[in-house]
Write a structure and sequence with these properties.
306 residues, alpha/beta, TIM Barrel, eight-stranded parallel beta barrel, 14% strand
Length: 306
């Protein structure tokens, strides 16, 4: 289903993000996780992407299996890094022929095994250029939907680490939207005020597409460190750090605090009519299912009736 139709059907969207596994066994385990979360009736699920050949193939295979073996709408990520125009065109063609309706377009980071990759050799230096290319691909008529792919892009409520100038950061996002993006998914955040301020700045800049809030519950002390690495510049509010400190290293209590914090974030976002909530799952279903339970609902349909 094209993302425009998804937004038309749901006042608030609920989506889950996964990363491609590295082995066949992990692929089967992840597919079981997706099927566990299928019961929550997500609006769509997304699959991240690495520029390396094996990771690229596993992303494609997982996206197609989710589409064919579950009722979930799958949205693959695609990045600028390490790609020529012909490679991007080939990837888009495969997804179009597989019936994939939407793409999440990102600038991306060099693969860990290629830290010295020369970005100047890539066909696209910035995500807005990739969005423009996907729009041109849409006009080719290759995709079975006459609208072509729906396109998502990333937003950064706490600022992009490579763009300390917050005015220019919103200008960069505006360029991606003007290039043809249909929606924005934000990087994870832990303070809703940062998200609301970001949405207001988007509005001031003339960005009118839906902005979906990225939520990742803390489930362990190690996952907290991983989040700090994943979202460079992520701000952990002092109140959250104090709550974690009171756990005295007990991982079960850390997980409870993290899930509770994320639940309250979601409750507040829903009360303020957020356009969508995007859960970064780390390929696990437990925390997301607990958040739904804490909110008193069985699936996303119930969350759209409040």
């Amino acid at each position: 289903m094209h993302i425009q139709d998804i937004f038309s059907a749901h006042r608030t969207t609920f989506s889950f993000e996964f990363f491609p596994p590295k082995t066949d066994r992990a692929s089967e385990e992840l597919l079981r996780t997706v099927k566990e979360l299928e019961a929550l009736q997500p609006s769509f699920v997304s699959v991240t992407y690495g520029a390396g050949g094996s990771t690229r193939q596993r992303t494609h295979d997982l996206v197609v299996r989710i589409k064919d073996e579950t009722s979930c709408e799958s949205v693959p990520h695609i990045t600028c890094v390490c790609h020529s125009e012909e490679e991007i065109r080939s990837i888009l063609t495969r997804y179009a022929e597989s019936g994939i309706s939407n793409i999440h377009a990102l600038a991306g980071d060099p693969p860990r095994d290629r830290p010295d990759h020369d970005r100047s050799r890539d066909a696209f230096q910035h995500a807005d250029e990739l969005v423009q290319f996907i729009r041109r691909f849409n006009e080719s008529g290759i995709h079975p939907d006459p609208r072509g792919f729906g396109i998502g892009v990333a937003g950064f409520p706490e600022g992009h680490p490579a763009t300390p100038n917050r005015l220019k950061e919103i200008e960069h996002l505006k360029r991606k939207v003007d290039a043809g993006a249909d929606y924005v998914i934000t990087q994870l955040f832990f303070e809703n005020r940062d998200f609301y301020d970001f949405c207001e700045r988007c509005d001031l800049a003339g960005i009118r597409v839906p902005v979906l809030a990225g939520i990742m519950p803390i489930t362990s002390l190690s996952s907290m460190g991983h989040m700090a690495d994943l979202a460079l510049g992520a701000r952990f509010p002092a109140r959250l750090q104090k709550a974690i400190a009171r756990c005295n290293g007990d991982e079960d209590f850390v997980r409870r605090v993290g899930v509770h914090w994320a639940t309250e974030q979601c409750r507040d976002l829903l009360d303020n009519r957020v356009r969508g909530i995007h859960f970064y799952t780390l390929n696990r279903s437990t925390a997301t299912r607990e958040i739904y339970s804490n909110l008193g609902v069985k699936d996303s349909r119930a969350l759209n009736t409040g």
